[in-house]
Amino acid sequence: MKKILVIVGSNKSIEQSNTANLAKELVQNIKVKGEVINAEFISLGEKNIQNCRGCLTCTKSGKCPINDDLEKVKNRMKEADLIILGSPVHISHVSSIYKNFLDRIFLNSTVNPVSMLSPQMAVVNKRQKSI
Ligand SMILES: Cc1cc2nc3c(=O)[nH]c(=O)nc-3n(C[C@H](O)[C@H](O)[C@H](O)COP(=O)(O)O)c2cc1C
Fold it and tell me: Could you tell me the CATH number of the domain that includes residue 119?
């Protein structure tokens, strides 16, 4: 069995998120010969992931001192064969919670390269009309 983890940087639930729906279509089209695909979706908006404090403790100890849901998400990432990262477009950029997620995980990755462990894909979702 191949495990796909979809991390969605929307403030909405997985059911409500356009980005999640887009990623679902993508996941439905992923086929790995002879393997059953198991996909798990996480909406960062439904997790308690606090803002990066910029303390850089993670670069020294390999661990973020903030005790919230990030560690649980990282553990799910370690178990995944493929990680799909998705964000809605917010003011021509990724959403703030998605960016904060990268801030929290990126420096830590230089010590403990969790985000490098699995192949990754990115999905960016915007509205159809320009604003
Ligand atoms: C604060 C905010 C800013 C947005 N900025 C843009 C933008 O710059 N360009 C765009 O095309 N859509 C923008 N959108 C629309 C979202 O990208 C669009 O509704 C998206 O499908 C929402 O995804 P979600 O349902 O996964 O949260 C913005 C939405 C919000 C809430």
Answer: 3.40.50.360
Between the CA of 90 and the centroid of ligand 1 the distance, in Å, is 5
Ligand 1 mean position to 88 CA, how many Å?
5
Helix, strand, coil shares of the chain as percentages rounded to 5?
35, 25, 40
| The two three-digit tokens of residue 43, written as one number | 């909406």
- Return d(Cα 58, Cα 124) in angstroms, integer: 28
Range of the domain at 6: 2-125
Please list every protein residue whose CB sits less than 6 Å from any atom of ligand 1.
10, 12, 17-19, 88-92, 125-127, 131
Residue 131 resides in a domain: no
Per-position pLDDT tens, the chain of length 131? 889 999 999 999 999 999 999 999 999 999 888 989 999 999 999 999 999 999 988 888 878 899 999 999 988 988 888 889 999 999 888 999 999 998 898 766 544 445 445 555 666 676 666 54
Tokens of 21: 């729906």
